[in-house]
Amino acid sequence: MKAIGFKTSLPISEADSFLAFETEKPVPSGRQLLVRIAAVSVNPVDTKVRKNSAKDQELASPKIIGWDAVGIVEAVGGEASLFQPGDTVYYAGDIRLPGSNAEYQLVDERIVGKAPRQLSAEQAAAIPLTALTAWELLFDRMGITDKDKGKTILIIGGAGGVGSIAIQLAKQVAGLNVIATASRPESVEWCRKMGADVVVNHQNLVEEVRNAGIKDVDIILDLVNLQHYWSAMVELVKPQGKIGSISDSGEELNLRQLKGKSVSFFWEMMFTRSSFQTEDMQVQHHILNKVSELLDNGTLTTTLTETIEGLTAENFKKAHAQLESGRTIGKLVVKY
Q1: Closest Cα to residue 117, out of 90, 154, 148, 152?
Q2: Which fold has domain 130-267?
């Protein structure tokens, strides 16, 4: 099968930052599915792994990355029971295993969902990783329920991949009043399209929120830079409120700053369940199926903004270069 990978961590501008190569088509076992991939999405985690996993070495064989895919099940392992050949599925996969930047991929059925029927392959490929991340953070980690309807949520990084679907889930599913951050006219417009009630500039965040007539907020999601926005979040969060983050803090955080207000803090890492093979790993199967239903009935909408066609090294270079520019709105997909 054809695959795209890398042997050394190089700047995306380098000729060998991605390589096209041939490798054996894998065979499923246990609860694995063999999926023929139709389209994949590119996420910040892809660029981080490319930059860091082969920094001071050359790998013996190219590493395949990519954690967002839609495709058709071609074969199933002997213990698989949730899917059968011919099913169209979507998933984010397992960061420990070969990724989706290839013609075929093995994936555990417990972290796979039935793809939305009303969406194209590229529209569906934009969803899994970000939807799982936002859903787990809002509902699994922070425990938001119907009792929270009408509360305010501040989403820092509203126009990005996770932010785009988090706005929709917070508004359409949780019934929250959504404040999103964006700075460019096009990203402000996108946040409003996704359903944000208020959009503020992330620069001078406290002042911007207060100028919008909002003193403080019940829930804050950091999807950009925890260290950079920490002081602003500490000031803006309501007493007994909640702060959740998916970003990596380069320095230690002073959690004691949350004590006076009895504020709760939550981490979210979408790959936790698959990486540790947790007992509730199959929850991701159910989340993806629920998101699929919400997409099909129009409650949610795809966050796809751009499609590149063709399984080539050059196309993944283009996709990574765009993502690294920090100006991507919504999701970028490579269709095979």
Answers
A1: 90
A2: Rossmann fold (3.40.50)
- 40 strand-pairing partners: 69, 334
Would you tell me the crossing angle of helices 313-324 and 44-52 to the nearest 10 degrees? 110
The answer on pLDDT for 51 being more than 80 is: yes
Check: pTM over 0.90? Answer yes or no.
yes
Q: Which tokens go with 1? A: 């099968």
Q: Return d(Cα 15, Cα 161) in angstroms, integer.
A: 27
CA distances, 130 to each of 203, 287, 294 (Å): 24, 12, 15
Please give the Cα distance from 3 to 103 (Å, whole number): 6
The model's pLDDT over 147-168, given as tens digits with 9 standing for 90+, comes to 999 999 999 999 999 999 999 9
CATH top class, domain 2-127+273-335: alpha beta
Q: How many angstroms separate the Cα of 113 from the Cα of each of 2, 69, 161, 223?
A: 25, 11, 19, 24
Q: Comparing 2-127+273-335 with 130-267, is the CATH topology the same? A: no
Instruction: Parse the chain into domains and list their residue ranges.
Output: 2-127+273-335, 130-267
Q: What is the maximum span of the chain, computed from C-alpha positions, in angstroms?
A: 60
Q: Residues 159-181: what's their mean pLDDT? A: 98
Residue 250 has pLDDT above 80, yes or no: no
- Cα 134 off chain centre by: 7
